[in-house]
Amino acid sequence: MPVTPDQQAEIDALRGEPKQTLRAVSEGMEAHLYKAAPVLDHGFVRVIDYMGDDAAICQAARVSYGKGTKSVSNDAGLIRYLMRHWHSTPFEMCEVKFHVKLPVFVARQWIRHRTANVNEYSARYSILDREFYIPRAEDLAAQSTVNNQGRGEALTGEEAARVLEYLKGDAARCYDHYEEMISDEGQQGLARELARMNLPANIYTQWYWKVDLHNLFHFLRLRADAHAQYEIRVYAEAICDMVKDWVPAAYGAFEDYRMGGANLSGRQLECIRKMLKGEEVTQESSGMSKGEWREFMGVIEG
């Protein structure tokens, strides 16, 4: 179950008691507040709180108060200018706090983004639930032969079935021993902070994750990318759906310039100029390595 009965009761209570406010409000984000978007088999993402909107980005950029005579189109144009020229500070004026439930091995990837405030569920004080991420059969894949960090073709037949049984059996066995070790029935019981080391990396944890929009965009650019690991990408995609409703102009610029754009080196730009002039350019004449050339061709050929 992604959301426990107690968490759902808290969500229902908070949504049932709306409060008036004088602060800037994003109607799109208000619709997401406290709702849990399910991710993977037991995970979720939900917005706890946020600050700012598209107008706050423009206000910071202009260092002024109120909308004045500026129109929505002017604001959108300014935001695109800021994104295009990598002006990050105005985007830092917006912040959002998420409650995320995710497998531990995904959390270890996620925490590499060290520009957020994080408070994680503590297995030193509390007992973790018996909830593990078990991939769908179609998500089990062999190691990629061209990318040391990626996946190749999906496992099939008996191999896929055997791997799934290993994942389920090992997780259940580890949790059984975890429960036995911390039990104080007829024994002293091992401290929770020690017993937790026996739990597998696919057990679920939870945290509050607060980040400004500039650093959130950096996270999404990497983790919502098609090349990102599936298990973290689906969380990033769920967050994208929330952010595009929160700051539609900023998200549109981000989607265009960051997600849909490409950064080229000086050497790559020179190759493009030669190609436009009709000159033949090869990997050998480009001065690029095979890997860099392959990535370059992927950009220009689509």
Protein described:
The chain is of the alpha+beta class and 302 residues long. The protein has three domains: 5-133 and 203-259, Gyrase A, domain 2 (2-Layer Sandwich), CATH 3.30.1360.170; 134-201; 266-301, no CATH class. It is built from 13 helices and seven strands. The chain has helices spanning 5-15, 27-30, 54-62, 72-84, 104-110, 157-182, 192-195, 213-223, 230-246, 248-259, 266-276, 283-286, 290-301, and strands at residues 36-39, 43-51, 95-103, 117-120, 141-143, 151-154, 204-212. Helix 3 crosses helix 4 (72-84), helix 4 (72-84) runs parallel beside helix 10 and helix 9 (230-246) crosses helix 10. The radius of gyration is 24 Å and the shape is flat. Pathway: Pyrimidine metabolism; dTTP biosynthesis. Belongs to the thymidylate synthase ThyX family. The active site is at residue 223.
Features:
302 residues; flavin adenine dinucleotide binding; 47% helix; 5-stranded antiparallel sheet; alpha+beta; NADP; Gyrase A, domain 2
Q: Stretches where pLDDT falls below 50 for ≥5 residues?
A: none
Question: What is the structural class?
Answer: alpha+beta
For the CA atoms, what is the radius of gyration? Answer: 24 Å
Q: Could you estimate the helical fraction of the residues in percent?
A: 40-55%
CATH domain class of the largest domain: Alpha Beta
